[in-house]
Amino acid sequence: MDWAEVRSERQGLWVLALAALLLGAAQAHPIPDSSPLLQFGGQVRHRYLYTDDAQKTEAHLEIRADGTVVAAARRSAESLLELKALKPGVIQIFGVRTSRFLCQGPDGTLYGSLRFDPEACSFKELLLEDGYNIYQSEALGIPLRLPPQDSPSREPASRGPARFLPLPGLPPDPLDPPGVLAPEPPNVGSSDPLSMVGPSQGQSPSYTS
């Protein structure tokens, strides 16, 4: 075997190796995209859902502790919501303060449930060009509408506004665990402001007045 044959054989091996590499890459499973710009993959957002309509009705969606859903004129702790993606374009809406899921009945009535029901508590999120969103039941296709502020919260909101503007919100600060006291501020007038020496049986002459 001369040099030309050896060189040709090596080139052939490189071609086979490259082909095997490309074939393996084509059959590999894609890595799930965790980009925060995508509305799936378990993405979680804290938002206030603000809404208005042609009659200048302005309100925030609020899930109360008793399970009622109302149109609140102002933001409150009960109107801070957690929007979590379930799959592309579908989310669940969760009340941060009341730990209730936003759900919708067959007649369009909204209510807060302590248990997540995929049929009643999954909503499609449709983005509009003006920044507002439309939410509708994934199972029923009924748009999410708030009841008018003067009507009972259990009444179907057939004429309420359906456009919502998700306003950024921050989750509440965690509460201190019971029995744990906050550290006292240092005593700047003391010779040991950080209490690094601690109590002792005797007292050093350096700290006597």
Automatic annotation (TrEMBL):
* Record flagged with keyword Secreted: yes
Looking up Pfam families in the UniProt record yields:
FGF (PF00167)
Signal peptide feature range: 1-28
Give me the stretches of Pro residues compositional bias: 168-177
Q: GO terms for molecular function, please?
A: growth factor activity
Q: Which domain of life is it from?
A: Eukaryota
* Compositionally biased residues, Polar residues: 188-209
Mind listing the UniProt keywords for this protein, alphabetically? Growth factor, Secreted, Signal
Where do the segments described as Disordered lie? 143-209
Q: What is its main location?
A: secreted
GO cellular component terms listed in the entry, alphabetical order? extracellular region
> What Gene3D superfamilies would the database entry show?
2.80.10.50
Q: Where in the cell is it found?
A: Secreted
Matching InterPro entries: Fibroblast_GF_fam, IL1/FGF
The record's comment on protein family reads: Belongs to the heparin-binding growth factors family.
Protein name per the record: Fibroblast growth factor
